[in-house]
# Entry
Amino acid sequence: MNETRTPLLSVKDLKVRFGNVVALGGATMHAYPGEITAIIGDNGAGKSSLTKAILGVYANSEGTIEIEGREVTMSSPHVAKAMGIEAVFQDLALFDDLTLWQNMFINRELKRGWGPLAITRRAEMISRSDELIRKLTVNVPDARRTVRSMSGGQRQAVAIARAVAWGSTLVIMDEPTAALGVRERTEVEQTITQLRDQGRSFILVSHSFDQVMRVADAVWVMRHGRAVAHRRIADTTGEELVGLVTGAIEK
# Structure
């Protein structure tokens, strides 16, 4: 692996504070393009704070974020989305009373024409949504059904499909298979790795060391608001990751 190439994402000495509370105490990490980079750690280690800073949800107090070697200011989620960075959080951020296709194209509606006379291309959005969701090979109902009527696993599949569809640069996934059964989890993992093999890039936040060992290319271990260790998956074991997370093994 040529580690001299330019990272897709580079975070350097990132600090996030809320009053006297330090959420990130100087986190430094990187992720390469065309890879699945995992982030692991106990609850409160800073995983969510790190990903939310990358996504512009939290403003960084100090430090830098670079995309493809260029320093950027993630001042809001809108800025991150404009850079092609999408996320799937555990709360999914779906609109229950809208249909699958409406959730897929929320604020990105396809239209023909301009101004008040523009016509919504409803049939095309339904067709494209159905095609995107079927790529996950999960048992998902018709694109015209509302999200409220779906199971937890189906809702997760919709959120993942939406992020992958619009995340042209990077997709950040926080426990993407937590609500899925074994078969559905396996199918989603296969889809993520297939997309990685096609050149897509992911950050995976997971409590499952087995999942990280199955799908990730590299992993960062966080403790107390810092990234304390980095491993290529080919060079580590699940047992070592446990030791790094608990502090039994240092770096």
Remarks:
- The mean pLDDT is 88.
- The helical segments are 47-54, 77-82, 100-104, 122-134, 152-166, 182-197, 209-215, 238-246.
- The first strand starts at residue 9 and ends at 18.
- The first helix runs from residue 47 to 54.
